[in-house]
Amino acid sequence: MNESGIDEAAFIRLVERLAGAGVDSIGVLGSTGNYAYLTRAERARIVQLAVRHAGTVPVIAGIGALRTRAVQEQAEDAQQAGAAGVLLACCWRRCRTRNCRTTRCSACTGT
Prior knowledge:
The model has no long low-confidence stretch (mean pLDDT about 85). The N and C termini lie far apart (about 35 Å). The chain has about 110 residues and is mainly alpha-helical. Helix 1 (about 10-20) runs parallel beside helix 2 (about 40-55) and helix 3 packs parallel to helix 4. The protein is built from four helices and three strands. About 45% of the residues lie in helices and about 10% in strands. The chain is globular and about 35 Å long. Strand 1, helix 2 and strand 2 (about 60) form a beta-alpha-beta unit.
């Protein structure tokens, strides 16, 4: 990734290399890295590319975001792309309220 966007060719090579190596699953957009700087469309594209080029290897998509609605949208995008599952790392700060639990529950139930 750079200012002009995602390096799709490099990402595809990485996914295909992992799949070819016989990994059990591939995680994309995890809880660290550049994912926080990507737009919704870019995140959706990453998941689409991973699923398309992973072959039979399950893809787990990170859906972390600061707002519940954004988490829900990313979960929907991951499902539409064919991801086998999602990873929700909801809090980047110490939670002293129910907000973190509420985000998790709302994302899972779609409410």
